[in-house]
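Reproducibility note. Readers wishing to regenerate the assembly model reported in the main text can use the exact inputs given here. Chain order matters: entities are listed in the order in which they were concatenated for prediction.
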Amino acid sequence: MLERRRRLIWIVMGATVTLTALWSAGLAQPANAPFTDAQAAAGRTAYAANCASCHQGNLAGVGEQPPLAGAGFMSAWGRRTTKEFYDDIRAQMPYGRGGSLDAATYQNITAFILMANGAHAGTQAFDGTETVRISAIANGQVPADIATPRRAAGGGDEGGAAGRAPAMTLGQTLVGNIKTYSPVSDAMLVHPDPKDWLIYRGNYQAWSHSGLKQVNEGNVDQLQLKWSWAMNEGGENATGPTIHDGIMFLANTSNTVQALDARTGELLWENRLGPLATRAYSALRSLAVFEDKVYINATDARLYALDAKTGKVVWKTDIAEPGKGFNETGGLIIAHGKVIVGLTLCRGQMPHCYISAYDARTGKQAWKFTTIAAPGTPGGDTWGDVPDDMRAGGETWIAGTYDPDLNITYWGTAQSKPWMQASRRSGTASTLYANTTLALDADSGKLKWYYSHAPGETFDLDEVFERVLIDHGAQKTLMTIGKAGILWKLDRVTGKFLDAKQTVFQNVYSGINKKTGQLIFRPDVLAQKTNTWISSCPSAAGGHDWPPTSYDPANDLMIIPLNQSCNMMLGHDVVQHTGVVQPEGEERLFFAPGTDGNMGRLAAYRTSTMEPVWSFQQRSSFLTGVLSTDGNIAFVGDYDRTFRAVQTTTGKTLWTVRLPTVVQGNPVTYEAGGKQYIAITTGLGGGSPFSKPSSMLGELHHPDHGHAVYVFALPDKLAGKLN
Amino acid sequence: MRCRQLAVLAAMLCGGIAGGAVAAEQRFATRLTAVAYDGATRANVQGDGQVLATLDGNKLTVSGRFMALPSSATSARLYSGAGIGVPGGPILDLQLDGQADGALSGSFTLNSKQLTALRQGRVYVQLNSQKAPEGNLWGWLLPEHPFPGVDVPEKGQGFLPQLDVPGNWVEK
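Running the prediction on these inputs yields the following structure tokens for the assembly.
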């Protein structure tokens, strides 16, 4: 009996070893899959047209777009069924346009993706109802002709796509000859004329507030459209104009820069720097002006200086190695003669992300600060044993701010990656300099101080957004709010924690040490394991995200666009290698408890006391920054195409207009020819703030095109009387 | 139509409460919305609903309506988790009447653990259905609070569960 059992064990072990060896050699073939060769072939064409621009021609994924072939795909989908995968892509893809293809196309794309993971076609056609476990038919081995994609005639990977810009000629299409532009000095940046909008958030302190008041609470309901301008389609449009001397400088997708007459919308020059946008992601959120140049950190991580009068390129330099997927999205600032920029999408590759500065006149790099602490460097021990090439994150999605008196530039950084503690294997350590406020000397890049907001953060809840500089008497403070929806107040001279306030429902943290600012995780968050679902409110869309706040100094009010949603998140067992992007987790969305299904919230807080003054909720998410003015009004736009003005002190809506598609970007105001104008962009694309309402607010519809800028002002008669 | 039905239901529930309320009673309410979903499960977790619960001492009375489920309702229960918005395990069965549209109800005597969970906002209603046997709609029972309406500003921060429901936030 014992002998028979031993013999059986040996037989089983032998069979296991043989099968393992065969499998490893790629010889063991899974069962035929429920799709046909014809479907997979048609699916390949459809994939190229609809999916490849984000997920790549070889299905390897890049940046935030997960791989659809190989170990990463199998890790995410191996245990689920063909029907679940089909239902998933049909509901959500192409990005931002879920359900827009016909059923046969989704079935064919499913067949192609299965084939790209080693599944073999059979005789049964896939009709979307087959519930075959994916790991039973696919092994993640990518056929060679897919792993090395065909090259399209234009030189890129095969395929067009959702988010891909229509073909157009690149280069300068109109050379300008602007006579009225006057050079922008340091002093003008420190004390900007309210008639201009020189800096991303209006001033160095990121107040997004204007001293103009021709348009005010008493007449804002009479605003009229004065002119509009269609912008490039494709990519992610979430920008805000820069204004100087009655000229509007506008960043379009595909790194196209235009100068327009800010009174009439007449084109003065245009330079299409390229490359063409290939995906509905990565916005050019701002330009910058200094002396006689306009600056743009293009989405391919190149920095350009253009002649402000003609639009010609004066100099250009690489912020990071071209062609490696590094990305710019958050705009830039000019401080003390230097152009300072961040860097994003550094995942799965070296070097780490960094903030860097360049001489504004020559483009020569002045300094660089790496936002991930390497082993053996200060802060390097905060990652535990995680090897250097597996330390990821710390992106700078939003341009920093600047205190000219202290000569310090302030930047926020994104979370560490992989998202979840259990996947990252760094515990609750602070993983510097992720989710941190960095205070850097503007001349040298030297670290003056840092504050780690959320050590051990685990749900993709960045603390990366705007740093707003506000003085309370003699105390110089820095205020910021991240995805967790916690409004922070720090001493910006020393980095000392001063106060914190919750602004939306969150359940990730169950407490705070009010002396140190250290957050206390909900106990089950600390006990997390990989491959287990765990709740996070807010979701990765963030209680607050990139649409920035405004600060009205007269009323000491910070007006904050907020979003309310939750998710369940599951972290994978991630094995990171340089050059490999793996899906780090999965998420399932739900509405936040206590919100009655309302995703949008706008709230005003008095910054001296941190007390809430007013708030209101609505179904739709807000997708613009807030612009406030001395007219006691504040402007904000949303996913449901509404652009509105509210009374700053009460939150009461005073004026609304419905625009053709999603209102996304940063509203600005300026004066030209004695008239005050309000400008706002419409736009599509983007990460979680755009994709979550797309998924959750199914009853709200918008065209999947319509990038444009709209400019409003009072009727001529009324504006004339007010001057 | 669905919104109107829900509004009528909410008005009826609120009216009933206002008419019959006594000081000792605590009222909890929730809107039922889709459980956590991804693209693969989204089509099966549609629908809407509203639930009201009244606590008198340790006696809990639950009543509510649901509508527009993609498949017939199969069961409804109260669940308790580790926090507001944190799913957990079933604790009490509710009675169910209807299919895609219908009502749910129940009366219970809560033990101290269940009472604490309810008062801390950790109890939620979950409705299961044929195509979503592990959850179609859910909603956390939170203290009833005034809602001024969509786009209507209110003074202060409005209702924030972690601050307005005891036991969810500690400041040291």
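We highlight two features of this model. The mean pLDDT of chain B is 89. Helices of chain B lie at 2-20, 112-119, 161-164.
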